[in-house]
Design a protein that fits this description.
Length: 200
Amino acid sequence: TAMIERLDDSVGQIIATLKRLNLTQNTLVVFSSDNGGYLNYAGGFENISDMGPLRGEKGTIYEGGHRVPAIISWPGRISPAICHETAMTFDLLPTFAALANASANREGSLDGADLRPVLFEGATIAKRNLFWRMGSQRAIRSGFWKLCLRGSKSIELYNLADDLGETRNLASARPKLVSELAESIAAWEAEVDQSAKAFQ
């Protein structure tokens, strides 16, 4: 609780300073977490977060591990609205670069999407697959479908439209979809690993 209170106070000071200096209409403020909370931490703290109906916690590939709300504010530029688009933190760099008229996407090396159409026009993000890799865990989200691979033997397929809590594994009922999504994960990993080698 103390950490959240300090964070709340600090953000409040930043917003108050922007108002005092008449900079609110010239400043884009993004407030978001990079992951879900811990359910248990350091062997002694339990039930320290509540992800509601979501399964998992920080460090997992389930929705409770990475699905978080975000607040993006720019008075006079972004109209207040609730947006249900799925974005990721790596979308921020291409968005910030585009807003600053800077070129950040060297030879198509950025994974993220420019969110300006979503923020300023209420548009949707073009269909794309989203990926996660944490240790031996892998996941892909394609539309409402999500494939979770934990190690070499655990294969889980969920339809997030009907099962946000990831409780009904549909992998055995949809083997072709599982195969297609697993191939997409393998291709993505190969591309990421190749890019990493190029920057070493």
